[in-house]
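User: Can you predict the 3D structure for this chain?
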Amino acid sequence: MAHLAIEGVSKLFGTTFAVRDFSLEVGDGELVCLLGPSGSGKSTLLRMIGGFERPSGGTIRIDAKDVTNLPPERRPTGMVFQSHALWTHMDVFNNIAFGLKLRRLPKAEIRERVENALALVGLVDYGRRITTQLSGGQQQRVALARSLVLEPKILLDEPFASLDQHLRERLREEVRDIQQRLGITTLFVTHGQDEALALADRIVVMRDGGTEQIAPPSIIYRRPQTAFVAGFIGSMNFVQSHIRNGVCEHPLFPLAVPVDDGPVTLASRPEALAIHPSERANAATVHRTVDFGTHKIVDVDLADGTRLKAMVAPDERFQAGMKVEPSFASFFAFRDNALVHQSMPSKSDAEAVRLLPV
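Assistant: Here is the predicted structure, written as structure tokens:
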């Protein structure tokens, strides 16, 4: 196991910061996911930790040892690239053994380690296959085995973006199982919120090279600290309004929001948005209904053009064109991207909101 400490790390490309004053501590055996849109600095940060990019400022320590300026081969890290980066002229065995040969280990030890790594990723009988004969998922496993065979203290992982959805889900579960079994401290980079929610002990939501929020998945989902995080993790409904005397002036959401007068953004998850048939003149209109089997998602249009999503039971019958009245069982209020108020569901709504899909 290993402890990773990133202290005030920045990376400049020309005059542009890819990462700015980033700090994070990752505990022994912890899996932390770096999540954010393209250009948020995730991969640059990962490459600096792995030694493939040199920071413009700051310090990176592994087990209290400063590794900021060490090359990749002198760091106790292993990296699994999205592109796999396998040598096509070598078979699977030699791809995995390559790093061990550079360390000049005895042949018997190399064979034992490679065979153990192949067993770990479920490819026991694939050692003599050429990598071009493997499926995308098998190539990803070889890339993982090549990293694990070096017995890294810290595993740096890129997403499975090139794989189909079912294979991605299966492989991420396998990676998590292996990581927990070996107790390797791991950073995992992804664009996909589903991967972050499924894999991570903690999620770091990044934006423009900085940090928006760091917390366990359930906290990130249920208590986002910024409007950006609220909109980036899961599906979120946003309603623009104004507060006057502690009350929201929106005609459909006259909610108590105990903040100073001024503009406000209300936000609520689809599972916390209730809808009921209505005859009111300013009622919302059902745009469409999508049946997911376990539940339905109803798209609802407000009079000002705002579209909201409500999660309802599979036997609910809402049709396009129906007039409905929406209400929030719970909601967040943001101003200038910062959370200024969070309501909790009433007891009658608590059970429904407890079943949030995290």
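The chain has two domains: 4-222, 235-354. The two ends are 28 Å apart (CA to CA).
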